[in-house]
Amino acid sequence: MSTTATEAKFLTLPEVADRYRTTAATIRYWRSSGYGPKAVKVGRRVLFPLSELEAFDQRLLSDAAA
Predict the structure, then answer these.
(1) Which of 15, 28, 43, 47 has its Cα between 20 and 30 A from that of 22?
(2) Three state DSSP letters for the chain
């Protein structure tokens, strides 16, 4: 199964959960509480742009350094 350039720019909810070593339920909770990386809905799918994940990572790092 190959991915196109467009698909590679987004991660699914289970992929994001794996990235942060947590569960999909935790990522859903983060979304409902306004915490975590921003996501977009495409139809019924929730997708996370890589740019948003990288921005969230930077916020986590700057909070840890403070």
Answers:
(1) 43
(2) CCCCHHHHCEEEHHHHHHHCCCCHHHHHHHHHHCCCCCCEEECCEEEEEHHHHHHHHHHHHHHHHC
CA distance 8 to 25: 23
pLDDT tens for residues 19-35?
Answer: 999 999 999 999 999 99
Is the distance from CB of 19 to CB of 57 less than 8 angstroms?
A: no
Q: Could you give the CA distance from residue 31 to residue 66 in angstroms, rounded to a whole number?
A: 24
- 44-62 pLDDT tens trace: 999 999 999 999 999 999 9
29 to each of 3, 16, 18, 33, 37, how far by Cα in Å? 28, 13, 15, 6, 12
